[in-house]
Write a structure and sequence with these properties.
Layout: H1 12-35, H2 43-57, H3 83-97, H4 99-103, H5 110-118, H6 121-126, E1 132-135, E2 151-155, E3 158-169, E4 176-182, E5 192-198, E6 204-209, E7 220-231, E8 235-236, H7 248-282, H8 298-325, H9 331-361, H10 367-375, H11 384-396
Parallel strand pairs: 1-4
Antiparallel strand pairs: 2-3, 3-7, 4-5, 5-8, 6-7
Helix pairs in contact: 1-3, 3-7, 3-8, 5-7, 7-8, 7-9, 7-10, 8-9, 9-10, 9-11
The chain binds flavin-adenine dinucleotide (FAD).
Length: 404
């Protein structure tokens, strides 16, 4: 099989359309909502309605968080670029516009990706149109998600949830929360299940919002669950505790969401590179793609190095999405993409501030904002260090107990 390093032709019109949206609808309000933290970006309502319309008509295949569903099988072995590829390409373009606003898009939450990844057909229909945030992290842990201590106790046809979740992206604005809870802590990872909890459920309370370094257009909430009852049918995946399967069920979500977060970093870094090239050119620096970097000015050489690093992140992200579209196990590639793109996102955006110096640092341009916004992409959905740990375990064939 040959590898084609160009953007998939079929998806270029979608990418170009989303780029226009990012440029004309996100960029103009980017600084406004960076400064007005916790104010709802009402301009997104119209954009979200447009995205819904496209999805409904089938024209917007995969153009967002819900595009990560894997096909159910069948005999079709044709190599293809499907909804996962469309999702990463469109999310990257949206984040070229603004990461915080992209994260704040109604009905495009990480919880929506979780539902799209693991819900059965009945649940998919029932939760259609909901805006779902994702609640894993608790006060007692962040990286080690096997430590979930929020409990889900079966009571008749319902589960009763008790616990506290922190740092829930879109936790205040979403309509429902996908909550990770344990059916029985003594049974370890296998007992951790996820539940779709509508925000109107008695016992669910949004306690407060966090103030943050970046992505200020996106709300980040603390949510408590006190005897919060959800129908048993809201459990995503199998209710059985299969100890031999371990964490595989719950973790399946990450194989689809990590490439999306990698794509966010790719988009934000691309924005910084595009503006930096423009500013350097205006300042008289010539960047020549046909000459070796060592023969060019220090600024041009550094820029070319950053672009090469970006390209690596971009290709790894496409690879992880392509594997998902082609029903190939991609946990390793999803973590490689997230590790590389998370690091590149931070390195590139901060290096662009450095290259443009005072212009990069002040608020006249968005470079300083992108340097702040990109950092979270190297933290949530698994930090840089955790992705490296996962990659090392997979490459060396070691279990999580053998390599901590
Ligand atoms: C803005 C924002 C939005 C978020 N959104 C969500 C959300 O929507 N849903 C949600 O559930 N969570 C969310 N989170 C939480 C996020 O996923 C966690 O912050 C992240 O998993 C890291 O956990 P922690 O902050 O507790 O750091 P810790 O786990 O305490 O880690 C601290 C440092 O130690 C390193 N480290 C930890 N373990 C190891 C190890 N074994 N080996 C080497 N290094 C290690 C980490 O990489 C990190 O550098 C969000 C966080 C932020 C800041």
């Amino acid at each position: 099989m040959t590898i084609n390093l160009e953007d998939p032709k079929r998806l270029r019109p979608l990418r170009d359309q989303v780029h226009q949206v990012a440029m004309n609808m996100l960029r103009p309000i980017s600084r406004k909502y960076d400064l007005a933290e916790h104010e709802y970006p009402k301009e997104l309502d119209m954009l979200a309605a447009m995205a819904d319309g496209l999805a409904e008509s089938g024209a917007g295949e995969g153009a967002g968080a819900t595009g990560v569903r894997r096909d159910g099988g069948g005999d079709d072995k044709t190599v293809k670029n499907g909804s996962n590829m469309a999702s990463v390409m469109s999310v990257a373009e949206m984040c070229w516009g603004d990461v915080g606003l992209t994260l704040a898009m109604p009905r495009q939450g990480l919880g929506n990706s979780a539902i799209a990844s693991v819900a059965n057909d009945e649940q998919l229909e029932r939760f259609k149109g909901t805006w779902a945030s994702m609640a894993i992290t608790e006060p007692s842990f962040g990286s080690d998600s096997a430590q979930v201590s929020t409990t889900a106790t079966k009571d008749g046809d319902e589960y009763v949830l008790n616990g506290e979740k922190i740092f829930v992206t879109s936790g205040e604005r979403s309509d429902s929360v996908v909550v990770w809870a344990t059916l029985d802590k003594s049974l370890g990872r296998a007992a951790i299940k996820s539940f779709v909890v509508p925000k109107s459920t008695p016992g669910l309370k949004v306690e407060r919002l966090e103030h943050k370094l970046g992505i200020r257009a996106s709300d980040t909430a603390v949510i408590t669950f006190t005897d919060c009852r959800v129908p048993a049918a809201n459990l995503l995946g199998s209710p059985e505790i299969n100890v031999s399967e371990g964490f595989a069920g719950a973790m399946a979500t990450f194989d689809n969401t990590r490439p999306l977060v990698a794509a966010m970093a790719v988009g934000c870094a691309r924005a910084a590179l595009d503006l930096t090239r423009e500013l350097l050119t205006k300042a008289g620096v010539t960047i020549d793609y046909d000459r070796p970097a060592v023969t060019q000015s220090a600024a041009a050489a550094r820029f070319l190095q950053l672009e090469a690093d970006w390209e690596g992140a971009y290709l790894l992200t496409l690879q992880a999405a392509w594997m998902a579209d082609n029903r190939q196990p991609n946990s390793l590639q999803a973590s490689m993409a997230k590790a590389k793109a998370g690091r590149v996102g931070s390195d590139v955006t901060l290096s662009c501030v450095e290259l443009c110096a005072s212009v990069g640092y002040e608020e006249g341009e968005l470079l300083e904002k992108w340097a702040r916004d990109s950092k979270i992409l190297d933290i949530f959905e698994g930090t840089q260090q955790i992705q490296q740990l996962i990659v090392a375990r997979r490459v060396l064939g070691l279990s999580s107990a053998e390599l901590k």
